[in-house]
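Dear U.,

For the methods section draft, I wanted the exact inputs and outputs in one place so we can describe them consistently. I've listed the two proteins in the order they'll appear in the manuscript figures. Please don't edit the token lines directly; just add comments below if something needs changing.

First protein:
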Amino acid sequence: MTTATPLILQELDEPAARRRGIRLILLRDDLTHPELPGNKWRKLKYNLLEARAQGHDTLLTFGGLFLIIWPPWPPLVGSMGFALSGWCAAKKAVL
């Protein structure tokens, strides 16, 4: 895992903005990491690096079952050598 996250910028060609001399540039966090959508990778990578540096081998995640954070966790943390335990709605989820 690298600590450098590429910033993917995309210019939006919006006629109304262009007429007013305004350039619209979007930060495409949805394209930053192949398995972790949106800004999740940017927000979590430092915690994952620190957990690894401290020698932890298992991560815990908490939240609602249908939150967008659930699906990416197993492949991401598994590829980094972590075991994962997820807790959802007061029950342990099998991930």
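Second protein (the one for the lower panel):
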Amino acid sequence: MKEQELFLLKRELNRLLLEYKRCSNDFYKELIREEIGFLTTAIADYETIPF
């Protein structure tokens, strides 16, 4: 994964966190939470495992 891709993942994670804070629909919040978990794992894998 290139540095630019990592930057885009972090930007998307930030957008989802802001959206999660504003959301009032519990179903939609759960979907956002799942996406946040996936992105967090992908970012953590990239930062701990050299490619």
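Candidate sentences for the figure legend, describing the second protein: The mean pLDDT is 92. Helices lie at 3-22, 26-48.

Thanks,
Y.
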